[in-house]
Amino acid sequence: MLLGIDEAGRGPVIGDLVISGVLLPSTETGEQLRELGVRDSKELSRGKRELLFPLIESTSSGVSTQIISAEKVDAWRNSGKSLNELEAKVFAQIIDEMSPDEVIVDCTDIIPETFSNRINRYLNHTRPSKMLCEHFADKNHPVVSAASIIAKVIRDRRIGNLCASFGEMGSGYCHDKRTLNFLENWYEMKGGFPKFVRKTWCTACRIREEKLQRTL
Questions:
Q1: Does residue 216 sit within a domain?
Q2: Are 1 and 100 in contact (CB under 8 A)?
Q3: What's the number of domains the chain is made of?
């Protein structure tokens, strides 16, 4: 049993961090998914990801997703711990839940061995015979590509729900002008940010500081 893990929403100032694992019965199943169009989620359109989502679910032996809210991300960072540490903890939880023989994860740390060691520290009862932490694993391994699609689709849907409830906010990424406009307008009107904004992010801190300076 081969498990691939990837995340979506590591960098945005708005929305959840979504981490997904996809369990396949064999590497051959991964190659079948590749033939059906499974690629790194960043290489696919939103419509294509939505089409592949149910296909991955039906083909896999199991899918596990954990959603970490903006509030929890902020609380973790305020405790002095890194985002890499948080992701390693959640990766380990998914590994324990799925109990695979082998694991391939998309590495978020500069040094893959460091990230692998972090994951191992959080494992409770599962010890895969092989764990590969690799940069660009979402491009190189179909099982991780599948996990990246699951995570990305779930995050996009949740951002869509926020837009429907609170107004257009773009992708939630700091470079998105729609996201910046939403944050600036919201802070101007409310004097603060909603709970789905990561208040420890530099973008939110800058907007808050600029508002304070204008007030002074």
A1: no
A2: yes
A3: 2
For residues 173 and 159, the answer to whether their CB atoms sit within 8 Å is no
Angstrom distance (rounded) from CA 114 to CA 124 = 18
CA-CA-CA-CA torsion sign (197, 201, 206, 209): positive
Residue 158: inside a domain: yes
For strands 62-68 and 17-24, give the pairing: antiparallel
- In angstroms, the CA 66 to CA 49 distance is 19
Same domain, 172 and 91: no
Q: Assess whether 36 and 66 both reside in one domain.
A: yes
Shared domain for 148 and 198, answered yes or no, is no
Per-residue pLDDT of the chain (216 residues; tens, 9 = 90+): 999 999 999 999 999 999 999 999 987 888 889 998 999 999 999 999 999 999 999 999 999 999 999 999 999 999 999 999 999 999 999 999 999 999 999 998 999 999 999 999 999 988 898 999 999 999 999 999 999 999 999 999 999 999 999 999 999 999 999 999 999 999 999 999 999 999 999 999 999 999 888 765
Pair 89, 118 in one domain: yes
Q: Which domain holds residue 75?
A: 2-162
**Rounded to whole angstroms, how far apart are CA atoms 188 and 179?**
14
Q: What's the token pair of residue 109?
A: 């740390």
Contacts of 30 (CB under 8 A, 6+ apart): 2, 4, 24, 141, 142, 143, 146
